[in-house]
UniProtKB/TrEMBL annotation:
Keywords: DNA-binding, Metal-binding, Nucleus, Transcription, Transcription regulation, Zinc, Zinc-finger. The gene is Taf1b. It comes from Cinclus mexicanus. It comes from the Eukaryota. Residues 28-70 form the Rrn7/TAF1B N-terminal cyclin domain. Residues 87-283 form the Rrn7/TAF1B C-terminal cyclin domain. This is TAF1B polymerase. Its main location: nucleus.
Length: 409
């Protein structure tokens, strides 16, 4: 039986069959998983969240990818189902498929993630502290937490395909969660203590300015001022993102048709749509889209050269620390746990459940900030926060205060 040139590839029909034994077909999301697996193997300085953000922003061909195909490559018939993507890539799906693919290919242990590697928590924490406009001094505390609970060890970070005894590491989410835990250690984030510290820091900064004292550690870090500055920038960027997604044209300029019979109708309909869009654009006076900016690892730009005091990188943590036995410790003696008991991740899908109304607004804001930076749901970061907390307070949690969610550090 002869096959028409417009019927698609020979195996195109297989993608319509729902066979549970064949979950690893090379779909578009699977292609992203394959690419990320290669990046991880090469230990390239890019995280999964950043990689997917570049995809959504159009720097990496994915949505409407067939318009980049050469003219000789005809995409027809059932093959359209393979390459026609009508949704944004999902972090969790790409991440899980990457691990399944690595195990299916029976790959050996990946190259070690060492302290000098970009994906190490210490390196990523430094990056996210800069992007979140937080004081540089916090990096010392994130490093202490990473070392304390052993999540910076090579065996913990390095991927070994098929090893079900080790937890799959989301490097970017893990680093963001470490920062959240450190902020809770120092500022508590209970909608009360952080504001008291902020008032104290504001008063000290005011007094130092009046008497013209210039101290080497920089001004005291004010949580309230940081919140106001970052929230304003976050709201602006979130609005831009929402508008861009709302205006996105899912149908590309290059029309698709499932059969040669419908080709003429599709082309005429497409030409009609283009004409209407052009006429509407002239009537509304809409401006053509500007050229796409070059991809950047940073979504926010905080410069210490700004005279408006909107950059907090050089600010001091003296207002929240005190020296004991030659070591700097947090003035805050308490800590509240997000959850006392972790869920079974394999059965429940999450280590903990996150409901915004059950947590302080300051905590929710910090989660929302990193959720925007990583383009993931806050619940994923919350899971990692709970995991870190249970590693950090394991002895106190299970030996002393087993049923109390407030711990004395």
């Amino acid at each position: 039986e002869s096959t028409s040139v417009y019927s698609g590839s020979v195996d195109g029909s297989l993608y319509l069959m729902k066979n549970q034994k064949e979950k690893l077909r090379m779909t578009m999301p699977m292609t992203l998983s394959f690419c990320y697996m290669a990046l991880l193997w090469m230990r390239e300085p890019i995280t999964l969240s950043e990689f997917l953000r570049f995809v959504v922003e159009g720097h990496i061909p994915y949505l409407n990818i067939f318009q980049h195909f050469p003219e000789k490559m005809k995409l027809c018939g059932l093959d359209l189902k393979i390459f026609c993507v009508e949704s944004w890539p999902v972090y969790e799906e790409v991440f899980n498929k990457m691990h399944e693919l690595a195990a299916f290919l029976d790959l050996p242990r990946f190259p070690d993630i060492t302290e000098s590697c970009f994906l190490h928590p210490d390196m990523l924490c430094m990056k996210y502290l800069m992007e979140a406009n937080l004081p540089d001094e916090l990096h010392n505390w994130t490093c202490r937490v990473v070392k304390k609970i052993g999540i910076g060890e090579v065996d913990f970070l390095t991927l070994t395909p098929g090893n079900k005894s080790t937890r799959k590491v989301k490097y970017d989410v893990l680093a963001a969660a470490v920062i959240v835990v450190v902020l809770k250690l120092l500022f508590l984030l209970d909608d009360h203590y952080e504001w008291l510290l902020s008032e104290f820091a504001e008063e000290r900064n005011k007094n130092n300015t009046e008497v013209c004292i210039f101290y080497s550690g920089g001004p005291y870090f004010e949580f309230k001022k940081w919140y106001e500055v970052v929230k304003h920038s976050l709201d602006v960027e979130q609005k831009k993102l929402d508008e861009e997604r709302a205006k996105y044209l899912w149908r590309c300029e290059k029309p698709l048709f499932y059969s040669v019979k419908k080709k003429s109708k599709v082309l005429k309909r497409r030409q009609m749509v283009v004409n209407l869009q052009n006429q509407f654009g002239k009537l509304s006076g809409s401006v053509q889209r500007a050229e796409k900016p070059n991809p950047s690892s940073f979504q926010f730009s905080w410069s210490e050269d700004n005279t408006d005091g909107s950059c907090f990188h050089g600010h001091s943590l003296k207002g929240v620390l005190q020296e004991k036995c030659g070591l700097l410790k947090a003035m805050n003696p308490d800590y509240w746990l997000c959850t006392v008991k972790l869920c079974n991740e394999k059965l429940c899908g999450h280590l903990a459940h996150y409901r915004e109304v059950e947590f302080p607004q300051s905590y929710h804001f910090v989660l929302g900030l990193f959720s925007f930076l990583l383009r993931i749901q806050p619940s994923y970061i919350h899971d990692e926060v709970c995991m870190i907390e249970h590693k950090l307070f394991n002895k106190k949690l299970y030996k002393k205060l087993k049923y109390n969610t407030v711990l004395r550090k």
